[in-house]
Structures are given as C-alpha cells and as structure tokens.
Specification:
4 copies of one chain form a homotetramer. Chain A is of the alpha+beta class. In chain A, 27% of the residues lie in helices and 22% in strands. The first copy, chain A, has a single domain (5-353), classed as Chorismate synthase, AroC fold, CATH 3.60.150. Chain A starts with a strand and ends with a helix. Chains A, B, C, D: InterPro entries: Chorismate_synth (IPR000453), Chorismate_synth_AroC_sf (IPR035904), Chorismate_synthase_CS (IPR020541).
C-alpha cells in the first residue's frame, strides 16, 4: 500500500533510501502565490544536517536541496513542488555486515518479513535520511503559516534524566547550545551525560516539545481527523518516537476535573483561558491557546556495544554496530518534529476553508468571471 | 472537510449527534464471507452502554443496533455495512443552559468558532455517543482478526492515583469489577476514590492499556502510515485522550540504548525478542511480539461544581453542569480503545496484502477465469 | 476495497441493497450554514421515483427520505448528513430464479466471481436503487451550488433513434413529457417507439445531456483530477452508462484545429468565447462557458425475451426476466446524471478554495480569535 | 487541492513543468519483488519521445529516465519509486508572446484565473510533457500486469475522417507506420491528410483504442470506483481527450436490449460471452472478456494560423502560434492511453486483493511468524 504520503490537501510524499541516489519530496496542494526559494528550504535542512558537532553522526553530507518544479519567478504556482537532495557520502562498506543480520531496535526484521527482501544499506527507507523530505516540506508549511501569523517552535525538553522544567525555560538560549535546549545550564549537564555514554558505547533518549502560537480557534476536524489525532500520527510517524502527549499529557490520568478543566474568561474582548492544561485543543479543534505537544524519543538503536541478535537464516549471533551514529538523535529530530507539526497545521487550516458557507461566499463572491 | 472516516481499505465512517434521531456507522471495505450478525455487534455495544453502574451516566439507552446493509444470509457481502442505533432518551432540557455558554473542557467554543453555530444538545457531534459507531465497527474488525488468529484486549490500568503495576496483572479479573481493571484489589481502592469524588462533585482521569497478540511481523507501512503512527491517530481521536504511548512509552526518554533495545533470539525456529520494550513495533511495523499501547484519559469535563466561563455573547459567567455524567469515562472508553485498535490493525492487514508480488500471484493464480 | 465513496472534500458514501432493509447515503464535508430540509431532498428523489408512468418500473416505493444527522434547526452543522430511505416493496419472489443464473447484461457474474457469493435479490448492490443515495446527495450539492449562483440541468437528448437536435431545444418542455425531453414532439415519437418495444418484450437505450451554468473559470485540478476527468468518473459510475462526452465529444476526432478551437473575445469587460466546442473546460478546468456533458445509456438489460445464459454451476440455460422493469432507464437516470454532476462541481469548488494564498488570507483575516 | 495523484493503492504522482528543470513521477504502492530496470521504463518513454518523424514536434529531447529510489539489485523494494527526466531543450524564446495572451484551446486562461498567475513557458504544468511521468508509471504497471498474464495494447483507430473499421484490423501493422494504426493502408491515407493540414497550418483530431486481455472477472469496485468509471477518469485526464467509450460506447444509445446484451455460454468449462458489446465490463467489474475502450482526441490546439483571442489585460487581439507542434497528437498519445489503462487495472487488481476473506486466509496462512 502507499504510506509515503501525509496530508489531505497539503500533501507531502517523501521518497528515497539512505544509500540510494537521492532522497526527496513532493509537496502537492501548496497554494499559489507563496514566495519560495531554495534558500528558504536550505535553512531548515541545515538544522538537521549531520556532522555539525560530536553529538551527531559524522556522515558528511552537504544536503543541498534543488527545487525541480512548482515554483516560477520566486512564487509557488499551485502545482507540485518537487525537491531533491542527492546522497553523496554513501560509504556502503560501513554497513556490510548488516545485510545478513537483524539489528536490535531497527526495522530490519519486520522489513524483511513485509517485503521478502530489503535494501539493507544504512537502514534503507527506514533511515533518518527519509526525514530530509519531511523537513523540506516543513519549510514550505512554515512559510504558509508565517503568512497567516502562526509560528511553530520545537526544542529539546530533556536528554536522559536531564530535563528543563516548565519554570526554567529561556527560549533565547535554544540556539546557543548544540542540544537545542531552552536552558544552557541543563544543556551542559546533558552534554556531560552524553560524553559519558559515548565512552560507554551507549546512547540516550530524550523529549522534544513543540509550541505553536497564533492558530485561530476551530482548526481540526471533530472526529477522526482531530487536530491532536493528526498531530499524534504525524509525530509518532517519526522514527524512534514512542509517545505523544498534548498539553498535560500523561499526567491527566492522575488529575481531577476541577483542576484539569481550563476556565474561560474574556480578555480584551477575546475568549481566553486562565490555564492551558488542554495544550490548545478542545474536542480535537484548536481552542485559541498555544498548542503544546511533546514527543518521547527512544535512545539511538545503533550502539557499538555487543548485542545478541539473529541472522536472516535463523541463527543466534552477536552484533556490534560501528559506523557513524548519533549518541542521541533528539537534537537533530527537533526540526523534524517542528516540520511535522507545521505540515499538520497547514493541512488542517486548508481543510478548514470548507467548514462553512460563509467562507465559500467570501471566496467566490469576488473571483467570479462567468459567461 | 471530511474527518468522519478512518482507514484506507477498511473504511469506517461514523455519523450522528448525541440528541439527533440516531447515531451510526458505515463500514466499507469489509471482505466478503465473514460471518456477521447483529448479536456480534450488540455484544460489543453492551460493553459501552450507559447506566450499568453508579460510575456511568444514568442516561438510559438500550443502544440496540440494526444492520441495514452489507450482510446477506449471515455473511458479509463485501458491500458497505450500514449500522444504526436510534437515540431514545433525549432529555434535551438537561442541557438547555449550555446553548449560550461554553463549558470548560468541552468542544463548545471551538465548535462554535469553526462552524458558526452548533447543535448544543448534549455535546452534539462531540458527544461520547459518537463512539457507538466506532465500537460497532470495532466488533466487525475484531471478527476479522479472530479469523486470522489475532486477539485484541483493552482494560483499565489506572484511575487517578490507583494503578495496576506490571507485576500485579490478573487478566481473569478484568470482567469481575465495574472498572475493568486486571486487579480487583486495586479496582476497589479506585472505586472508593471515585465515591469520594462523586461526593465532591468532581471527576477522575485514568489510563487504558491495550494488548494485541498474534499479529504477524511486517504489518504497518514504513513512513507516515506506521503501525504506531496510525494507532496514535486512532487512539488520540477518542475524546479525552491526551497521550498515547507504545511499549515503554514516555519512559524511553530517560533510558539508554543498551537497555532499551530488545535482543533477538531464535525460539523454536522462530525469530523472537528477549524483552518487549518496543511494544511490538520496529520501524513502524509489527515485530511479532505483542503490541502494547496506552492511552491517558483526562477527567470527565462535565462536573457539577461551579466553574468560571464565558457566554457566546462574550460575557464572563459561571456554570454548574448538572445532568447525567460519568465521574470517570475510563471504564466505558475501554471498549472504544479496543475497537480503534482492532480497526487500525484490520486496515493495515488489508493494506499489507499488496506488499509483495508473491501475494498477488498467490491470490490470482487460482481465481482466474478469463476468456 | 472501498469504492462506495465519491469526492475528496464533499464526500458522498452510499450504502444499501435493492432488497435489504434500506438504502442511504452519508454526505460528509458539507459546509455548515446551508439551509436544508427533508422536503429539499424529497423533491429530488421524487424525480427518480418508480411507478410514475408506463415507462418506469411498477415497483411501488414511496422513497421517503429521513435525515438522521447533520442538520439542526434547519441548517447543516458541518457534520455528516445521514439520509435513509426504507425499502418497502421487496417482492423477493419476483427474483427467485436469478439466484442460480447469470442474467445477461447484469453484474451477476462478476459479482459472484469477485466476492464468492452475492445478494441476488433484485441486483443487490448493483441495483438502480443504489442511486437513491446519489440523488439525495445531489440535492444537497445543488443547494450549495444555488447559493453560489450555479445551476445544473439534465434532460433526455435521445431515446433509440429519436434525438433532439441542437437547434430544436425547447427547455420549457422538459417537464411537460414523461421522458424529460426538451422537445415534446420528439418525445411523442420516442414514446411511440417505446410502446412498440414494450410489446416486443424489448428495451431501448438513449442519451442524457447535462448543462451547468454560472461556474467560475478555474474550477478543476490540472492533472488527474481535471473537471472533465472527475465528471467522466462520476457519470460513468452510473450503471448502464457506456460513454461520456464533453462539449463536442466524439466528433472532435474528425475535426480540425481551426474549427475546434474556441476564439476568445472580450464581452462587456469579461473574457468570453465565440463558440463552445470545448463544452466549458480547458486543460481540465472550467473556462467560464456553460459546461456541457453527455452520457450514452445502454438499453435496460432486464428483458422478458428469452436469452441464452449459464448457471452458477456452469450449465448452459435460457432465461426470461419477468418482473417490474423499465423499457428504458433514461428518464429516471436524468436526475442521477444531474446529481452526479452537481456533486462533482461542488467537490471541485471546495477543493479550489485552497488554490491560492489570497483565498487563505481572505478567510483567515477576519475569523481569527487567537490568544 | 492536490490533483497530481492517481490510484488508491498503486499511487502515481506526477510533477514538473514543460520548461522547468525536470519532469518526473513517484510510484508508491508498487509491490516488492518486481524485476525493474531503467531500460524497462525507457522502452515506454521512447514511444512518446518527440522528434521521431514529421508528425511529431521537433523539440529535441532524449527523455532519458533515471530511477532514484525504490529499486535495489534489480527488484522493486516496495518503497516509492522516484523517476526523473531532465528537461534539456527548453527554448523559452519560442513561447515568449504567450505570457500575456491566452491561446485558444489551451489551459492558459483558466490557469490564470485559478492560481492568479502561471508558468507560461510551453504550457507549464498543462504541457504534454507532464505525461512523461504517466508513461514511466505505466511501464511499471505493465510489468506487474505481465507477471499476472495480462496484456494491454493501444493503437490509433482514426485520424480525422480516416478510420480503421473493426473488420480491417491488422494488429501486426501497428508498429509499421508512424501513426500506430493497425492498417497500413488507412495509415497512408491519414498521412496524406496530415500533410495537407500541415501545409494549411492546421491540425487534426483522432481516436485511440485500447484493449486489455487476460483480466480475471470481478476486477473493479461496484459503485463509484467501477472499472469503467476509473478508466473514464484516467483516460479523460489526458489532455485533449473529449470522450471516453467502453465497448459499443455511444452507439448503445440507439440500440435495443435484445441485441446489446451479450449472451453467456460455457466454453471449455469457462463462462464466456458470445459477443462483447459490453467491452469487458458488467456492473463496473471486469467480465472476463477483453476490455475495450476508446478515447476521442481533439485536434492540436497550437496552430500557426491566425486566431482571435484576448490578452490577460482584457484586450482583444490575434495570435499565431509558431514553434514546434505536432499536427496531430494522437500517435504520441497512444502510449499515454495505454499507460493510464495499465495503471488503472493495476490499482484495481491490488484493491481487489481485499475483496474476500478467502484471500486474507490464503496470504496470511503461510506468512505468519508470531510470538
């Protein structure tokens, strides 16, 4: 079947394998008239580029994007935007031993079962390089959102046991540390922790949080395509994510209604909420408060430590995965989570255009040129 | 837009409002030749029926299902299965005051913003009664899974602070207590807790866990339609769910790779895993181990306590929500989470039929009758 | 798979069998705020009702529609509109002999091959009664179009050899004859022809034409979802249709470019066309001229004459189909073609809302209420 | 919205403009294990390549395809197949004057209305070069069909008034004349006719017929996704097609039932039909007989003759379209129609896998490896 497309109106289709010729994405359904250049995309891609510091894979890729269609004289035309990034540093020899062995924590085994064989080089389709297409699409989505006054921002909330508590956020510090944490002090503790893990040939998990502001109320569809439901799919579809939380997330299970409900009040003529336990969604639609979500990321599966596993021929064996791997994928995944959030919001804003007759009349009243 | 359909091949479309004439569901894409009767559906619906004990709303509904199409002589025909449940006890007067006031924690405000007006009676489309359609469809999905040797079972893991720990599961006790917990002792503590909350005009959250066994490896699509991603959408689309976890869930953020990875080993000629931190998915596909997911449910939003809120005319006001409300929705949501899981698995099993040429040849080799 | 849904935003899902309990439709994605009543739907359904004159089946059905959801206080709410029509006159004995025999021209044989068994009563899912759901949805679509100043009108262009030529159209006469032809004189000749065929236990084909006016230019998507392509699917999906033409249709094959091209000119400040060979579409988008399509309908397959056929056990046999059958289905299919056209136009108008940034800004500039 | 994707399981997404950097296609949902090389694709592309003789545009493009993903060691992997063809001969100066003028018969005007501006170079997205992606996908589909014993073949049935009658088909001659007609003699007459039109700065329409053999009965979904309905969309979505016919097509309108019905009979133990007026479909599903469809193609819109038109500023003007244009597009469209047919059949064969429980059991009985 076809699981490489996300979105109903703003449709993002990624393609490509880790060690194939290229990876890329088609963005279909982008409205015409959006200012868009390769530089806009590149800025986003550079945030997930490998080899930036010792916490990211040393694979050396420029990850330079080329826009092949859908843009004319600096503006989107309304037709599919095809973007491609050539794979350059395809050191296949690093991965040779995994052709015949299933790496623990990786997709190798189910991939082999599903398709009967697999492109074993560097994880193939299940490689993190697939997310290049998501980030390129996320860049486009973010530009649309910006035109509507909506901002999306993701950052690292925790690495292993080191966590930025809600009262210790310094958003200006996010870009100041290599882990993209909104608190340089916690980031330093986390770095020391990662240094230890690197020596121990081990890896760490962490948490990414994402906040969107400026979203009008009523975005999201009331039943299966709830704002939070589609965000859950979008975020959980990023490899290594094992939990998605909205607002208070798992802590609601232990809460009582009188505390969990956010009271409404009028603030300068606008409906507002005193608190935001809901994380910006009510009944699956945006409620006008900031949207808040969190993703729990598992530790990098590729570790140099010896692990027990089996071969594709059904023999017990051991494996040590050498090569170029991040001790933690959280920092590079930050822009991926931000991109998936932006894509989801964009798609739902476009879907919402048809929610009421009033919108139709507004659009078609003026544009009409009929015989 | 159209957010009332879930699934790509096994397509479930629910319809209906809390206080409209009826609620129902269309299941399109159900394979022909499945034995199916109204009694099969009713068994599932009875598990979410209101009025069963003091922890569930006293609204009195028989919730009797009628199958209107898609079944002939006891078997599905391959055409859409239309199922309908008439609403009977529509005591609209209970809800009169909410026409002009937004209830905290409810969808009232974003609904009004989205559509310009709303069916305010009992939550309208955002009512829990919408899940009747999901459960009816879940019953069909469960029958398909059963024919393939796959079982899905959900239960209450926690209510407020009362939680069944992993080493205290007694699955046989699930049906023995009104909270559907796999430990009668914890269930009794939770009941006492709920009794207190009822007196205090308050409500509680909780956690539902769902386990699926017998799923072959390789089910789920590798990118956006990952098994865990679609389960996340499916489960988060149930009202009141604020977090979805797979396997170790949020605890992976604090883990290290050497512990989080599940080592493979051969067990009686079969690829197996020593542990199941992954919760049965790798790279978004089933890995042959039991699938494990959890949903965190917020406390019932409707509480009789006085709450601050605003009117649709933009005036600050207070509201006390009387009427028939569950102090906790977890027990009744158990079968809804189980249904959404069964629906998702069924759809992905059907999607997986086209994963390899070998499947096509197997199916078309025998069936062919061509001129 | 699931082939019972049409449309991407305005989604129409029909269900039901000829001799099941009921037939119906879900319309999901209808914008909120449209005035809608059961009487609006009934008016459309009455145009395809059986038993109106000697050229239509004598099956006696009131075909009374009930709206079960999606409408509140006379307006659509934006949630799924569920409409149902109970089957009343299910004289199954009329159809008993077809359980074991494949009727020539009918779906019996491929249905049996596809699903392994079938609801043989009255054609089951392939019965013309399935179109009740289409017409009910078409009524909703037509109301949306009317609010935007768009009209859709279908009529009978030919019955057997009797055809209304382009220069002989009298649109006011369409409702004046039982065949819905825009020329009473031709209609009378066609009626005489049908009278003869009835005596001969035979049936006739015919042509339906449909014209839509008031459509703005630019509706339709440029590649696979072209306006004419989706109309072709919509119209060809009506049983018995064997050809779909747009504008000059098949006669373009023998034409030359200098004649087939429609010259543009300015008419009162508006871009207009001197001719309309294109039938209102250019490059798959509306061009501002009236949309013109035609459907060629095959003769009713059920005829009382003896025909050669085979049994499901693979024996040669003969069959005479008695019961209540139309000698021509064209007149009753007129409203079905009109409905499918209206549905397609509505869906593409809704899709077109997201075609340019200008639309987004127009809609979201005013509606915003953000914290 | 997103109209660049066709198919539900075998999903084809084309992208690219006439004078952009490249054109291409993503084929998602192709089963794993199909032998596939660039040479397989190139063979198909060469059939629509420009510059092959005097009846096709002299634009000089090698149209060399590169497969960027989804194939590993000569076999499809089940992941998206990305194929790209670089545009080389982008002589934009030829098209300069059309930036400000709407060409009659072209998409210029509705494109401008829909998106507010357009890539005017060579027709942009509405150029015939978009079909390169369709043909590349058609090549993949054809290989799948071949593995299942199904063949699809298209050819030119008529050019202007010169038509190959049903009793004059010589299929072996199709490749022997530059018009791909199954009759060299008629082809010569048609060539003489085209020579005259070229001198007269004019163009011709024509008819393409396509036949598929080996299709099992029961393929196609009974309601909106009928085999013939999806073929109608697929074929009508090819630019310049103005009519689609199945089997007897428009002539059924004048027929009577006793002649139009195809009698069944048993032939060597197999259900067969004496005639094939139906063109291989009954009730929207394949009936085991050869599938027959026809497309009516309008004359090339670009003619060097002077035509009346208007500017984008709303001024009446005249235009003569010089440059490199085919006097007839029928011969180059043959492989496009064949491709769209192959794509549609492949998608419906994959959809049909889930039609009955028997299929599921067949596939999952053997593949299972579960804990």
């Amino acid at each position: 079947m076809s699981g490489s497309t996300f979105g109903k109106i703003f449709r993002v289709t990624t393609w490509g394998e880790s060690h194939g010729a290229a990876v890329g994405v088609i963005v279909d359904g982008c409205p015409a008239g959006l200012s868009l250049s390769e530089a806009d995309i590149q800025t986003f891609l550079d945030r997930r580029k490998p080899g930036q510091n010792k916490y990211t894979t040393r694979r050396s890729e420029a990850d330079t994007v080329e826009i092949l269609s859908g843009v004319f004289e600096g503006y989107t035309t309304g037709t599919p935007i095809s973007m491609v990034v050539r794979n350059k540093d395809q050191r296949s020899r690093d991965y040779g031993n995994i052709a015949a062995t299933y790496r623990p924590g990786h997709a190798d085994y189910p991939f082999q079962e599903k398709y009967g064989f697999r492109d074993y080089r560097g994880g193939g389709r299940s490689s993190g390089r697939e997310t290049i297409g998501r980030v390129a699409a996320g860049a486009v989505a973010s530009l649309i959102l910006r035109e509507l006054g909506i901002t999306v921002k993701a950052y690292t909330k925790s690495i292993g046991p080191y966590k930025v508590e809600a009262n210790a956020y310094h958003f200006s510090e996010i870009e100041e540390n290599p882990l993209f944490m909104p608190n340089n002090e916690v980031a330093q503790q986390a770095q020391a922790y990662l240094d230890t893990l690197i020596k121990e040939l081990n890896s760490s998990g962490g948490t990414i949080e994402c906040i969107a502001k400026g979203l009008p109320a009523g975005i999201g569809e009331p039943v299966f395509d709830k704002l939070d439901a589609l965000l859950a799919q979008a975020v959980m579809s990023v490899g290594a994510v094992k939990a998605v939380e909205i607002g208070d997330g798992i802590s609601v299970a232990a809460a009582v209604g009188s505390e969990n409900n956010d009271p409404f009040f009028m603030d300068k003529g606008k409906v507002s909420k005193r608190t935001n336990h809901s994380g910006g969604t009510l009944g699956g639609m945006s409620d006008g408060s900031p949207l808040v979500l969190r993703a729990s990321i598992k530790p990098t599966s590729s570790i140099a430590r010896k692990q027990h596993t089996v071969t594709i021929d059904g023999q017990d064996t051991e494996i040590s995965i050498h090569g170029r791997h991040d001790p933690v994928i959280v920092p590079r995944a930050v822009v991926v989570i931000e991109s998936m959030t932006a894509i989801t919001l964009t798609d739902l804003l476009l879907q919402n255009l048809s929610s009421k007759m009033k919108h139709l009349k507004k659009v078609y009243a003026e544009d009409k040129n009929v015989e």
